[in-house]
Specification:
Elements: H1 2-31, E1 37-46, E2 54-62, E3 65-70, E4 81-93, E5 101-105, H2 114-117, H3 119-122, E6 123-128, E7 131-135, E8 139-140, H4 142-151, E9 179-181, E10 185-203, H5 205-211, E11 219-233, E12 239-247, E13 262-272, E14 278-284, H6 290-293, H7 306-311, E15 316-324, E16 330-337, E17 353-364, E18 370-381, E19 390-391, E20 402-403, E21 411-423, E22 426-438, E23 446-457, E24 465-466, E25 471-472, E26 488-502, E27 505-522, E28 525-537, E29 554-567
Parallel strand pairs: 1-4
Antiparallel strand pairs: 1-2, 2-3, 4-5, 4-8, 5-6, 6-7, 9-10, 10-11, 10-29, 11-12, 12-13, 13-14, 14-15, 15-16, 16-17, 17-18, 18-21, 19-20, 21-22, 22-23, 23-26, 24-25, 26-27, 27-28, 28-29
Length: 568
């Protein structure tokens, strides 16, 4: 027990150290009363690779060092000089925290090479070692520019909240080596690896009788390893392909085995269909439940809720048609699935599923800062194969707390309800899932579960909403650690419940309360911790008879999991 608490304290100290360092940096900035702050607005960056896309940005230089590169308005009271670059094109390198050296040209050298042969003529601004050494552009009066900035419409605030400025890297220094773009196709190599350290902190006697000694599961593991390819086939309307492989524990569902073997997670082809719709063919996620459809690495907890893992599958083989309305307020998707290619059975010997989902945005503020999301999904299966519902308690290094055993059924019908509200950095969400099973062997039981979740970005970032499929994007990082910031910090909590005791089926009832802390040092590197408290009501897995009276078989346990995750 003492060892477990020590591990928790070490992790907390590890997390708080960079926070205290960042606080000291903020203090030093406040004490620096004579800072020279130069703001250069409306500078154009050109990606020298591929399609030469341009991005208009604002550049903030403080005491000769590059502070921010952002598309956001950076003007505030600290700015001492403002230069309007008037869509001048930047030539040089930009690295936050270093003294910048660059030219701003009046013409784009990627369109007219002669510009580079006479930079003296076309250079309207030159910055060397963070200082302006040439300027033929009018310098804007700072008081005037600040008054103009006040007139600009801004996002609605969450109390005293205003969105943070997002740093953009210089496109000259950040070409993705994993991306290939050709005339006929493009390919992006992707990869994810997650390392876990699990510590079970407490367990009462009843829990020990139910599931055994949990401390036997303490330890470290590679929680997930996934790699794959995704890209486009460049027809008149491009097709999108994706192929990925992973350890079987990467994305659990009631239909997946918990082992470390490597298998194909996805192989899918997305083909433009009629109007605004897409036809997706192959092994893919079924269109039901936002929590299921979002990637495991992007949901606000390390693991999905116990109801999602117990009642909904991970992947299936089939075809899905999906689309959205012209006003982008409604999305719809429907598909037919049968995983006979992954088994030794014929098509008719495997279960066939019909799955659908619709989402709606009943409210979306004008600046899209606040929204309300609603969703409904349904799944029918003719259950040609036996059914089994089992799940661990939202920890990977754990025995199953929920297990129905295998039983026969005629068919099953699953419903899923979704609701989310987001305002600025705060996101509240919940889902309810119910499975009605026609089984004479078990008395036609009904299994159900739900979760309620809250996520708050402590550093102010806002999760964007994907109108194409009715899900939320991962937490953005406004200023990564390598750009001189503290990354993005998110505090999360979740209450999840599963009711698995119904009629003659006794798979177990469980409720779990979780809190989580996530630190995104940059968009590809994440450190997190999740602590969970679990209450399980069921008979023992490890003895043949039930020694508990009804209502008294409630075992309590709690533990923590630390995770380090890297992505390409």
């Amino acid at each position: 027990m003492e060892k477990a608490y020590k591990e928790v304290l070490v992790f907390i100290c590890f997390i708080l150290l960079p926070v205290s360092t960042a606080a000291e940096n903020v203090k030093n900035d406040i004490n620096s009363t004579k800072a020279e702050v130069l703001l250069i607005n409306d500078v154009v960056l050109v990606d020298p690779h591929g399609d030469k896309k341009t991005t208009a940005v604002n550049i903030l230089i403080k005491n000769g060092l590059l502070e921010l590169i952002s598309q956001d308005d950076l003007n505030d009271e600290s700015v001492t000089q403002v230069i309007d670059a008037q869509q001048g094109v930047l030539l040089g390198t930009l690295e936050p925290g270093n003294a910048p050296n660059f030219l701003v040209l009046s013409k784009n050298p990627h369109k007219d090479f002669s510009v580079l042969l006479d930079t003296k003529k076309y250079a309207v601004l030159a910055v060397h070692a963070g200082k302006v050494v040439k300027n033929t552009i009018k310098t804007v009066d700072t008081l005037y520019s600040q008054e103009k900035a006040k007139e600009k419409p801004k996002r609605a605030a969450w109390l005293a909240y205003s969105p943070p400025s997002f740093v953009l890297p210089s496109s000259y220094k950040n070409k993705r080596w994993t991306l290939y773009k050709g005339k006929n196709f493009s390919t992006l190599f992707t990869g994810v690896v997650a390392f876990d350290r699990q510590v079970w902190v407490n367990q009462d006697n009843i829990s020990t009788l139910q599931v055994g000694d949990l401390t036997e599961f303490n330890g470290s593991e590679i929680r997930a390893f996934r790699f794959g390819l995704a890209g486009t086939l460049n027809f008149a309307k491009p097709w999108v392909y994706s192929i990925s492989a992973a350890t079987a524990t990467f994305d659990k569902g009631f239909d997946s085995n918990e082992n470390d073997s490597l298998n194909f997670l996805d192989w899918r082809l997305d083909i433009p269909f009629f109007a605004n719709s897409t036809l997706s063919i192959g092994k893919q996620k079924e269109p039901i439940s936002m929590e299921r459809l979002m990637s495991l690495v992007h949901i606000p907890m390390q693991e999905r809720s116990v109801a999602a893992d117990t009642l909904l599958p991970s992947r299936n083989i089939g075809a899905v048609i999906s689309g959205q309305t012209d006003n982008k307020r409604f999305t719809w998707a429907g598909g037919v699935f049968n995983n006979w290619l992954d088994t030794d059975n014929d098509f008719g010997e495997n279960s066939t599923q019909v799955v659908s989902r619709v989402t709606w945005l009943p409210y979306l503020s004008e600046d899209e800062h606040e929204l309300m999301h609603l969703g409904f999904g349904a799944r029918y299966s003719n259950t040609q194969a036996d059914l089994r519902f089992a799940s661990s308690p939202e920890f990977n290094k754990s025995p199953d707390f929920i297990d129905s055993g295998t039983f026969n059924a005629n068919d099953s019908l699953t419903y899923n309800l979704e609701a989310s509200w987001r305002k600025g950095p705060l996101w509240l969400s919940g889902e309810y899932t119910e499975n009605n099973i026609d089984s004479s062997e078990k008395g036609s039981p009904t299994l159900s579960g739900y979760y309620l979740s809250a996520a708050l970005s402590l550093t102010g970032e806002m999760r964007n909403y994907n109108k194409r499929n009715g899900t939320f994007a991962p937490l953005a990082v406004s200023q990564s650690v390598e750009q001189g910031g503290i990354g993005a910090w998110e505090l999360t909590s979740r209450w999840s419940v599963f009711d698995g005791n119904s009629d003659q089926l006794t798979s177990g009832d469980i409720d779990i309360f979780s809190v989580g802390l996530f630190w995104w040092l940059n968009p590809k590197f994440n450190i997190s911790a999740n602590y969970r408290w679990m209450n399980l009501e069921r008979c023992s897995f490890i003895i043949d008879t039930c020694e508990f009276e009804k209502g008294s078989a409630k075992g309590k346990s709690n533990g923590i999991n630390f995770r380090l995750m890297l992505m390409l």
